[in-house]
Amino acid sequence: MVLSGPQSHLSSHHQPLPAEYQTTDKGRASAEAYYNNNPSFSSNSDSTTNMSHKLTLTSTIPMPGSSLGMPRLGFGIYQSPTDVCVKSCLTALRAGYRHIDSAQFYRNEFEMGKAVQESGLPRTEVFLTTKILSAGGSPEKTYQKCLESVKTIDPSKDGFVDLFLIHSPSPGAAKRKEMWQALEQLVEEKKVRCIGVSNFGIGHINEMKEYAKIWPPQVNQIELHPWNQQRDIVNYCHINNIIIQAYCPLVRNYKASEENLVAISKKHDKTTGQVLIRYCLQKDWVPLPKSDTPSRIEGNADLYGFELDKEDMATLDGLDQGERGAIVEAVKND
What we know:
Number of helices: 12
Number of strands: 10
Structural class: alpha/beta
Distance between the termini: 41 Å
Strand content: 5-15%
Largest sheet: 8 strands, parallel
Order of helices and strands: HHEEEHEHEHEHEHEHEHHEHH
Radius of gyration: 19 Å
Shape: globular
Helix content: 25-40%
């Protein structure tokens, strides 16, 4: 699979925000009103249903402003121990995953890169993500901190990272600016191909307009599953052509016995985990399921022989608990 060139899987969700909404003072209310009044953005629309028919393990989603395509299914390695992580990544790659998500905070960037090197796959065929959680103390130190991640993951002469995210908005506005500008510099130097954010709310992303050369961020990675759907930020990202990645799509198995989920899994003869990941795909999110169990890694990629129907999607949509449903965090949209 080549991750560059024209892509054919751009859904109707990924449309630019109309000019009258491209100011920060419009805020959440206007964005949500536009989204809700535009039928092409409905999760149950025909366009979404048609898109879901086309999904395969090799499906990609075009990165805004880039010829790069991101595989629609990712593999998360949060809390994957260093002595296990390489094996888990290799299992995932053998199963057909071509997208792995790490972070400086996870302390397994090296293992992710090593797995790709050992896999025998061309570097350009595997989409690798990492994140910076805290600034380095100065613009130069922050830049060097990010550059070190690139070198750790891909030590080749022309090494690069496909996607680099700011892990959290929590360091504050000044540090967010410092980290973003470091990432922009790495894009200019072709050390990083695409950049984005994680756990950012509407206000955090709007704030970036004041200083960003690259806006909007190409990705926002947030916690997403039926019990925490974060509709305000999801709507905002869709309108502004920001790809949404979903971490904790399996809810860490806390909901495996929930009666509605179990009923849908029995209906399709699939595991509850497969239903949850398929749900994310049909919502046009990029799920990042995590496991270190080989059979589960493989099973979590077996998603393309079935489709959730409108009734299934409506049932899962109806489980939303808002912020109460988050097991890590819901974004702050103020």
